[in-house]
Structure formats: structure tokens, C-alpha cells
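>> received
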Amino acid sequence: MEMSGSGGTVLELRSLEKMFTEKKTGRELEVLDGIDLEIGQGRFTCVVGPSGCGKTTLLRAIGGLVEPTSGEIFLDGHPVTGPGPERGMVFQEYALFPWRTVLKNVTFGLTLKGISAIDARASAREYLETVGLTDYENLYPRELSGGMKQRVAIARTLAVEPRILLMDEPFASLDAQARNGMQEFLVELWRETPVTIVFVTHSVDEAVFLGQEIIGLSGRPARIVEKFTNELPYPRNRTDAAFTDLRARILDYLTKEMADSYV
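>> returned
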């Protein structure tokens, strides 16, 4: 497989806005405020911002799970009007079926596409090999560690061959050692596949370790206020001076945005 890299624009957001109505008060709550963004094919983009600013809403809008109040989203030039197999989502919660084995969890989306059981199992086994879980296909989610569960979730998502992988804090519930290991695993996986990744995180260290671009959102309603280009070569060293410098610049922006949110 070829290493991921830059290509033409695969995802475009134009003047994206989202309003929610609070159930108790009926008050209109503005979450996204005029998001304009272009992401190239095969790029790894991280999204950071103050807690509660709308990062997850933005990701769910790209996934077609939230309908924008106004604005447009385009994938390969075609408008996004709802969920689709070309956009795969991985959530913080593992979202695995506890009554299905690892193999049957991965075959789930394939069978929904009408692929025969034999072909679905063959394809699922290829992706389990990719994520290093070949020997675990007959286990159930309760028998796996947190990192292994998330690998199954990633394998299940990749098995349907999405153009874009949307990831919402997928490693947040893991301990520090497991989280670092999953970050390293994801980078290697991405470098071997053509998939485009949009990754939401609260961790600046994680964003610098993973992303080629890091999009900085304002406090709610979210606007793009910073864009950081990360040209550090992979694999990245967290103690490298350039790594710590970029992390410090992102932390400075976040500190300012959080302070402004409480004014």
C-alpha cells in the first residue's frame, strides 16, 4: 500500500452553521458559526478547541449525523445530505456488539452492504490482520482490553473502505501508556492506507503527535481561529524541541480561547 499524502480536496465545508433548541427553555443555542474548511485527500487533520465548543457537533455534521442549520458540506464535490459508507466514524465509546465475536463485529458492515458471508469473513480477517488481532477473532468484546476494543472498532470501520475516517476522542478512555500505543498504531495504519482522517481531541500532545494540520476552534459558537501546519516527520518524538514548541503555541491559543470563554 502507498503512504498517505496530499491530493486534491476531498472534503469542503462552506459557511457551516448549527443551531440547537434547548428542550427545557426553548432557547436557541448557536454551536457552529461559519466554519470554512478544506481537507485534502489522504491528509491527517486534528481538531482542537475549548471543552464544549462544538468539536463533536462538527464531526457529526461531516458524518451526516447532524444536519447543519445553514451552509454546505461537500465530499468529492458532491453535497453531504446524510450518513454514507464513504465516511466511517469511530467514537470514544467502542460501540461494539457485545453478543458478537470480534470477527462478527467486523463483518457486520460488510453484510449490510450485501457482501456474502464467505467474502465478508475473508475481508474481515484481512483487516484484523492489519490491526494485529488475527488471533482474537473468536473472542467477545468483554474479553478484550480497551485498546484492543478500539482496534476492532477501527477494523470494522475500515472494512467498508471509507474515504474519510472520522474519529471522536477515540483514545480518551485509555490509560496513558495504552493511549500512546494506540496513537503510534494509528499513525502506522494511516501511513499504509489512502484514508483521510479527521480526528477530534482534547489533548494537544495527541494532536501534535498525529496531525499534519491542527485546526483550532474558538469557544462556542465555534469558529476556526487558528490553523497550525505540522511538518514534523513521522515517527514523531514527543521530546523533540520542535514538537514541544508547536505544542506550546497551541496551548497558548487554547489558554486565550478558554479565558475569553469565561469573560
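>> The CA atoms of residues 91 and 168 lie 5 Å apart.
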